[in-house]
Design a protein that fits this description.
The protein has 652 residues and is α/β, with parallel strands linked by helices. It is built from 28 helices and 15 strands. A hairpin with a 3-residue loop joins strand 1 and strand 2. Helix 4 crosses helix 19 and helix 5 packs across helix 10. It is globular.
Length: 652
């Protein structure tokens, strides 16, 4: 597998978060490098993404973006945060070497090279930087040929070096896995008891408990190796911002099994007294109440998702924990009048509209019960979590069934399939088989996509004809088609489940959502932008929306692609509540013939649904999408005798 530098990993993380395109120039400015360097980085990033089931999409004039499902993007972000796959820069390698010398009695170059995934020669060639670091702090690095290196110097100076490394904000994330493995794994439980006792006695809460636990664990580790502070040492000698507090000392003296001498007690007391506090015990008790609310809300939203599809919580534990933590922060912001604002709502409502609408609907009831108010940005972030949970849960259920048909020999067909393996990583693939065999297979099996090197007429599934040599253009076409088909299957699965779980089996009709005056049929139009504007005209004339709202709908498609094509042949477009919407409204336009939709013209639509929703409890998108997802209604839309009344009468 290709390895990435720290900058390349950071760039890929940025692409994971962003939904739209980023120009090479903007990425170069972000990381303070030349455009030429960024293009080189993107080649490595593209190879890494392909190795992990994702791809980098390039569009001239727009830039690059990550092409991946939400679940794949989440897995990729987890991998980027995994230290085992990390490639460290020189300063990071130096810091790791410096830290290992404080943690282990003897350190070999091989130990450092194994951790950093570089050669011993690379470590040795730059080890003078490590020597300089310790020399500046009054400590010497002693090297013994055939044995390794160790530190020599006053214990307080060694501890100051350690504190300096752990306090470095930029390096902490690099050193954290090593600190946890070497210190918290052995001493964490003991230190937690000590910290809890101090917090309880002083009625305070330390802000950065993990880093505090690491520092005290380091002290215990040094004591266990008989590397202790000399008798008679005082807190003035420690010079770490301490202040006199005999109560802390008396409390720590009760832990003589951990801190056996007065200097060690004074040192740890000094560490504790220098820590930043996050609040008093009373505030913590209030936070616990908020935590219970966050857990309850998290559970309620996940249970609502579970009604649509089974969720394996054990495999999603890290996501669920992050979700609950985010809800705690959202509750706190709501009750303290803190409003976050971001471009996220537009991106989310455009890229995952079904989950966003689902989230809005369920949060409306939650807000009333818990006395909180969440703005569009808060709802969007919560929707991102729910989408990741849902997509991960349904991954296997909505995996594409891809048939590979080829009239060439099996050997050449197998080679072609191998070259497509990255693009088809999350698909169920059958074949290769001849065109005749493919037709027989489609008659008796579900097939979502046929990939073939020949012209192939098939009514049972979409067909993608590729160049047998599979040049880059053909490979990009396969990726786009798979992404489009996967998204369509995911939306269909969600809508079928949502319709099946609708309350009391009630039937929704278009008439309940759309006024007859806002329905247009048989409209002539060849451009998707113009189709959106024509669909919005009745709402614009009635004063429900402003022209800015129409412009924002068009720009949302240009920025984020045709994600709003949720059901076959129907696009559901909308903008934000602050983009010029005056009242709840909806409109339907049915074209006389299908047109290409989206900046890359990658989808075809026959209808446009324009939505303007101000009330959180409304779910017009879910209602209309559930109606137009039905095969019978899709056939009705294609009828040459279609009229307004036929559209209004459609139901789920």
């Amino acid at each position: 597998m290709i390895e990435l530098t720290g900058r390349q990993r950071a760039c890929l993380r940025a692409l994971c978060v962003r939904g739209g395109f980023s120009t090479v120039e903007s990425l170069a400015r972000m990381f303070d490098v030349s455009s030429r360097t960024m293009r080189t980085d993107l080649k490595a990033i593209e190879s890494f993404a392909l190795d992990n089931g994702c791809s980098i999409e390039r569009v001239p004039g727009k830039g690059v973006r990550l092409s991946a499902s939400k679940a794949s993007s989440l897995r990729l972000r987890d991998m980027l945060d995994d230290g085992e796959n990390r490639v460290y820069e020189r300063r990071e390698r130096d810091a790791i070497a410096e830290l290992l010398l404080t943690l282990r009695p003897v350190v070999k170059f091989q130990d450092i090279s194994n951790y950093c995934h570089v050669s011993k020669q690379t470590i040795a060639s730059h080890f003078s930087d490590v020597d300089d670091f310790y020399e500046e702090n009054g400590v010497e690095v002693i090297r013994e040929p055939g044995v390794g290196s160790h530190l020599a110097g006053a214990e307080i100076d060694v501890r100051r070096c350690f504190l300096g490394l752990v306090s470095d904000v930029e390096l902490y994330s690099v050193l954290r896995p090593l600190l946890i493995d070497e210190l918290l794994a052995e001493y964490g439980d003991k230190v937690a008891v000590l910290i809890d006792a101090v917090q309880e006695a002083r009625q305070v809460v330390f802000a950065d408990q993990e880093r505090l636990a690491i520092v005290i664990s380091f002290v215990l580790m040094r004591i266990s190796r008989s590397c202790m502070l000399p008798a008679g040492a005082t807190d003035e000698e420690f010079d770490i911002g301490s202040q006199d507090d005999p109560g802390i000392g008396r409390l720590l003296s009760e832990y003589d099994n951990l801190l056996p001498t007065e200097p060690e007690i004074v040192f740890v007391a000094s560490i504790l007294l220098s820590q930043r506090l996050s609040g008093t015990r009373r505030i913590v008790d209030e936070r616990h109440a908020g935590n219970d609310e966050a857990s309850s809300i998290s559970r309620e939203l996940v249970c609502a998702l579970r009604e649509l599809h089974e969720i394996d919580e054990s495999s999603l534990q890290h996501v669920l924990e992050g979700f609950t933590r985010h809800l705690r922060a959202a509750i706190y912001r709501s009750r303290n009048g803190i409003q976050i604002q971001a471009e996220v709502p537009v991106q989310i409502t455009s890229s995952i509209p079904l989950l966003y609408d689902f989230t809005r609907k369920h949060l409306a009831a939650v807000e009333t019960r818990y006395g909180i108010s969440l703005n569009d940005s808060e709802v969007a972030y919560i929707a991102m979590y729910l989408d990741a949970i849902y997509e991960t849960s349904v991954r296997d259920a909505v995996a594409l069934d891809v048939l590979f048909a080829c009239s060439f020999g099996l050997a050449s067909s197998s080679i072609l399939m191998t070259r497509l393996s990255h693009a088809l990583a999350d698909c169920h693939v059958v074949g290769p088989m001849s065109l005749e065999e493919a037709k027989e297979y489609i008659d008796s099996h579900n097939v979502d996509l046929v990939i073939t090197t020949n012209h192939f007429d098939c009514e049972g599934a979409p067909v993608l004809e590729v160049d047998p040599l599979l040049n880059q253009e053909a490979l990009d076409a396969v990726k786009r088609q798979i992404t489009t088909a996967s998204y369509s299957k995911l939306c269909s699965s969600f809508l079928r489940s949502y319709s099946a779980k609708s309350a009391d089996g009630e039937t929704s009709s278009v008439r309940e959502v759309v006024d007859p005056s806002a329905v247009q049929v048989g409209v002539e139009c060849d451009d998707w932008r113009e189709a959106i504007r024509k669909a919005a005209n009745p709402l614009l004339r009635a004063g429900y929306i402003e022209q800015h709202y129409v412009d924002r709908m068009v720009s949302a498609v240009e920025d984020y692609g045709p994600y709003m094509v949720l059901t076959p042949g129907m696009a559901y477009v909308h903008a934000g509540v602050n983009d010029g919407i005056r009242d709840n409204c909806a409109a339907i336009l049915v074209l006389s013939h299908p047109i290409a939709f989206g900046p890359a013209r990658e989808k075809r639509v026959r209808g446009i649904a324009v939505l303007g929703i101000r009330d959180k409890e409304r779910s017009d998108l879910l209602s209309l999408a559930s109606i137009f997802e039905r095969d019978s209604n899709l056939r009705t839309l294609e009828s040459p005798e279609l009229d307004v009344e036929s559209v209004l009468g459609m139901h789920d």
